[in-house]
Amino acid sequence: MSEHSGRRFRDPWGVPHLRADDPLALAAAQGRVTAYDRAWQIEVERHRAQGTSAAFLGPDALGWDRFVRQVRLDDTARRCHAALDPATSEWVGAYVHGVNAALAAGAARSPEFAATGLRPGRWEPWTPLAVWLGHHILFAGFPGKLWREHVAQRLGPDAVDLFATDGPAVAGSNGWLLAAERTGTGAALLAGDPHRFIEDPGVYQQIRLACPEYDVVGLAVPGVPGIAHFGHAGPVAWAITNAMADYQDVYAERLRRDGPRVQALGPDGWRPAHRHVETIEVAGAEPVEVEVVETDRGPVIAGGPDDENAVSLRYPPRVRGDLGFATLPELLRARTVADVDHALRHWVEPVNVVQAADTAGGLLHRVAGAVPVRHPGNGRRVVPGWDAAYAWQGWHAPMPRAEVVGRSVMANERGLAAPLGVEFAARHRAHRIAELLDARSAWTADEMASVHTDTYLGAAGPLLEVLAESTDLGPAAAALRERLLRWDRRMAADSTDAAAYALLRAAVVRRIAAHPALAELAELPAYPEVFAPWLALTPRVGHALEHLLGATPLPGVDIPALVRAAAEEVGDAAAGQVPWGDLHRLAPWRALPGPDTGPGPRLDGDHDCVLATSSVPGVTHWCFRGPAARFVWDLARRSDSRWVVPLGACGVPGDPHHDDQSAAWLAGDLLPVITDWDQLAEELH
């Protein structure tokens, strides 16, 4: 392999380190190694982004394909690609060329292709943009507005705030930045862990990209060029968390047919809407036709011209024709936090809180992305598309930023991005990280794992407070109460007290969800199935439990009585010696489920711990979302940086590097980031 086409090296964990003569050759090399290591994964994502995954995954994928067609995701990616500046377009094109060059070879070593009969396809110039948008179209949680509308219609508008609470219902992350004076190295440390659905293969790809212009190590998204979210370029490093901003709106639409055409009522009266019909092929079933309608507000994602309750989605990339990809090549060239800051002027989707540090002592803590200015009501519920009061009125600018003094923490809480959002994560993770960081000084990269893996559950307080006031308990329930009041509130896998708390919490959630006062919420509204996770009552109660146990209880619900009944229900079961890890198991998502091999690995943590291994209280103790990677970027010596992913660097089952990082991830260990080329093995094929 010539230097011009790129050279590929591997570290002991199979992480690809790529070298090329120029950025375009390097982008092509990144595309090739991604197709070789992750062919099945990126082809699934390509098909999901264009709404064709049911053709080989079957009826279970139909709901997603229907949504993607209706929201016009692939068309939005095409528009955004057409608007790219020539240099960025050429760079993305080089990556796509690399993917296409190696896709057949990657597919040949991936057994899923033969199992499904899928043949590797061809990537289009806009496919990386579609993959990115597919990952993030639901990231801002707009279906939560459908839930609030459901609550308002069934229980009245005043009931919306009972559930509109900060909680763990959406994706999040931890991140923290320590200035030089707080470390033992004389330079900054930047660390964190993005919380995503744990997927097999993993959603993040450890990689290194080196050419004469730059040398960056970080976590890439397979199918997307560059290193968007977590990178260390040597003189500067950056990381993000979800800002929890509200930037997608859902509009009620009044539609009517006019022969083969469709009209939509807007502020200026009836106007023509775009309409066409698409056919979704479904493996093992008949094809399904989907009517695609788009009004002046946006694509119709639920209902249609023959329904009273049609709703459309308005989201920035479709409105602006821009996905922010111009940031990606600029980030690779960054040398200072000022360069990172400047590159982020392009950023659109998703809206992030960014931290960065450089070797000159520069520090950055800011929000990046596109958030529309509009009526406050848009952030809460479905709003009428025919009322001009709810139209977008431009964009928030400048984005919020804060000075870093000693350290900064970001954990999706109501903080820097508060003016831009409605619901945020509870403060427990952010407060706990700050408490841990402030407990000592002179931190090093190796010591950061103690923060990543902290299992203290601050969210346990409200339930334990109600339990402490419970009287007239039977012997087993009383013993449970005394036991939990002595508990250290750590959700350790070997803790039987943690399991007892989780069993009690689940019982309380189920009893609240089954209460007659909430009966009208139990029946899901008639929205597409892809939105069901946001609309199901028991998960909503589970995620809002801390709030529902607090100062604003549900009308007509005797919370102390429910907690007493739950304690009686689980007292005997919780008296056993079942450890939390026997209940709390990892259940990674796979596009093609394999044979049932029983419960996954035992896990420490819980959704409001810093070690945020999320379950759904009242539904399951199993974990579907957690740290999709952990990292520490050391600005003193990049080779002292650390990282780990849940499985491994390769997406091919049976490959030695498919899951060789699992043991370290489960143990909370971090692996070295090897940057010395002499310690890497070159691949010559």
UniProtKB/TrEMBL annotation:
The signal peptide stretch is none
Q: Which PANTHER family match?
A: ACYL-HOMOSERINE LACTONE ACYLASE QUIP, PEPTIDASE S45 PENICILLIN AMIDASE
What this protein is called in its record is Penicillin amidase
Question: Which organism does this sequence originate in?
Answer: Micromonospora noduli
Q: Which InterPro entries match?
A: Ntn_hydrolases_N, Pen/GL7ACA/AHL_acylase, Penicillin_amidase_A-knob, Penicillin_amidase_dom1, Penicillin_amidase_N_B-knob, S45
Q: Which UniProt keywords apply?
A: Hydrolase, Zymogen
What family does the Swiss-Prot or TrEMBL record give for this protein? Belongs to the peptidase S45 family.
